[in-house]
Design brief:
mainly alpha
Length: about 160
């Protein structure tokens, strides 16, 4: 499935279904395209329509560009977890997704920073983070900003 087919399929699902059915169907797409920005943006919008800001925050996190409203919803999302990075990452990292290749670069950076903070604070990296952490690490080693990643964030 190419990008245009994905976007058309998402639009069709939203147009032809009620909110709950659309959410259910789009979550099926997430198994194939976890963290895809367009998909996450649409899921977030559906959850916003339902006034479920905790779920909306999970998908807003993966958006490429954040609005003021997005940042407010993310604040609600982080507060829900008491700003506990391990629990936030448990919610954000898809179980069974071994390689987060479709996630926007800046989002990967933020996830990697959070993982490094967890590793630094606890002295170890929880097992559920391993695949993603090592995927990110291998990608970022090629980046000239690699040594600065632990000190930057977009949020």
């Amino acid at each position: 499935m190419n990008e245009a087919e994905l976007r058309n399929g998402i639009d069709k699902i939203i147009r032809n279904n009620d909110i709950d059915t659309a959410i259910h169907n789009l979550k099926g797409y997430m198994r194939l395209r976890y963290g895809h920005p367009f998909l996450c943006e649409n899921l977030a919008n559906l959850y916003i329509e339902k006034n479920d800001f905790r779920q909306a925050g999970k998908y807003i996190f993966y958006k490429e560009h954040l609005s003021k409203q997005d940042k407010e919803i993310l604040s609600v999302y982080f507060t829900y977890f008491g700003n506990d990075k391990i629990n936030i990452l448990k919610d954000l990292i898809a179980e069974g997704t071994k390689s987060p290749v479709r996630i926007d670069y800046d989002v990967k950076v933020e996830l990697f920073i959070m993982m490094n903070e967890v590793k630094s604070e606890n002295g170890f990296l929880p097992k559920f983070m391993w695949n993603w952490y090592y995927h990110f690490e291998s990608k970022f080693k090629k980046d000239s900003r690699y040594s600065q990643l632990s000190q930057s964030t977009r949020r």
